[in-house]
Amino acid sequence: MALKDEGISRRRFLQTAGATGAGVAGILAFPPGITKVVAAVAPGIFQVTLTYPRVNIVGLADISEGEPVDFAYPLWEHSNFLVKLGTTALDDVDPE
């Protein structure tokens, strides 16, 4: 008794099942219209942004090449530093 070829291979079946499972998982994780539901339950939740004051850290003429300038921004607990590289940085950021 021979098995009939049903026209789909095991590999194709597993690929289709995996893609379908990933699609269902994506829809269940982020259902269509979820933003409308969240906006209805908690109005303005997507408009929450913090605004921080503009602060003059240092003038460009006052920065020495290779010397870090320490500063706290946006809050006093967040320490940062600024360094004048003297050469073009990653993604073509101006050397000044």
Using brief descriptors, characterize the structure shown.
96 residues; alpha+beta; two-stranded antiparallel ribbon; 2 helices; 2 strands
Plain-language structure description:
The protein has 96 residues and is an alpha+beta fold. Among the domains are: 10-43; 60-92, no CATH class. 29% of the residues lie in helices and 8% in strands. The protein contains two helices and two strands, in the order ααββ. The protein has helices at residues 10-29, 34-41; strands spanning 69-72, 79-82. Strands 1-2 form a two-stranded antiparallel ribbon. Strand 1 and strand 2 (79-82) form a beta hairpin. The chain is elongated and about 80 Å long. The model has no long low-confidence stretch (mean pLDDT 79).
